[in-house]
Amino acid sequence: MAFELIRRLADGRFVSGEELGQALGIGRAAVWKRLKNLENYGLEVHAVQGKGYRLSEPLELLDQTRITEHLTPQAQQAIGKWHLLEEIDSTNAYLLKRPLPGVLQVALAEHQTQGRGRRGRPWISPLGRNIYLSLSWTLDGGINQAEGLSLVVGMAVARTLGRLGLMDAGIKWPNDIHWQQKKLGGILLEMAGEAGGPCRLVVGVGLNVKMAEGQDQQIDQPWVDLATITMGQPPSRNKLAAMLLNALIEVLQEYQQHGMAKFLVEWRRYDLVSGREVSLHLPDRVVTGYAQGIDETGALLVRTEQGVQRFVSGEVSLRY
Ligand code: BTN
User: Fold this and answer.
1) How far apart are CA 279 and CA 281, in angstroms?
2) Cis-peptide into 122, omega within 30 deg
3) What pLDDT digit, counting tens, does each position of 24-81 carry?
4) Which residues are catalytic?
5) What is the pTM of this model?
6) Pocket of ligand 1 (CB under 6 A)
7) Which domains, ranges and CATH numbers included, belong to the chain?
8) Cα-flanking dihedrals φ and ψ of residue 191, to 5°?
9) Which of 123, 135, 244 for a ligand 1 pocket mutation test, highest count of atoms within 8 Å of Cβ?
């Protein structure tokens, strides 16, 4: 498994081929082959005679102890089960397939091979770089509750970024995280369950921390990562994962207690759409008008020629 090799190289120091071979129980030629294979993960290996091999850039791999160190007592108490994954198709798909959760479950991955974005788009998920996080629990309140939830999850991400001093990141309704008109993160809510029976909700959060070079060509819209915004000083992935979990659990508890009303004022601080001319892409048509914020359920209000209309779904694009 490539991961054993990656762990041994993660800190960016030189390791000799011999040491790697011994640790993995394979010969020098096989070590070389596996090192070459790391390029498929977007990792670059430097080889220096007499010193061995090292990654061109160190990687901060996920570490449950380090994540837990930064969790609030509420978050520690709320999380019932952890899944720290090396490679997975999608953390959302993974949690959707598990038995109905009796407790709040968290999945975090180093790498997603089929990361899922909204509207069937792929979510590019290079190894060891960004945050790929999903939360899952059983929803008692039924599907109706989920409407506002999709917005408050985005607000948890915006709160986290604010706590990191990044005040100018905001949300494009319903929950795209943007910075200077570029996508920094996204949220995908998925649900499974039978009508009338208990329903499982999975909330997936993707946040670009330091996108791998070369991988970005696959992204079909302007994007940015925290490394660029912070001029090469992105926060620790483990700390960031914990801060996101803290904020997510905080907003979920607030939402459960007070509903959407609690968030309406704060929403305005992050709202990148209000007052702007927008096109709202619906399955069968495109509506244009001026965005007027959200109503008490989280629906988008748009002033059109026919008056103010409310929308619970759709893809917003801003007109410049
Ligand atoms: C979007 O298109 O804006 C939503 C992106 C959501 C990506 C995250 S990464 C963790 C979780 N697992 C997935 O497959 N997708 C979500």
Assistant:
1) 6
2) no
3) 999 989 999 999 999 888 899 999 999 999 999 999 999 999 999 999 999 999 999 9
4) 118, 183, 319
5) 0.94
6) 90-92, 112, 115-118, 121, 123, 132-134, 176, 186-188, 204-206
7) 2-55 (1.10.10.10), 64-268 (3.30.930.10), 273-318 (2.30.30.100)
8) -135, 150
9) 123
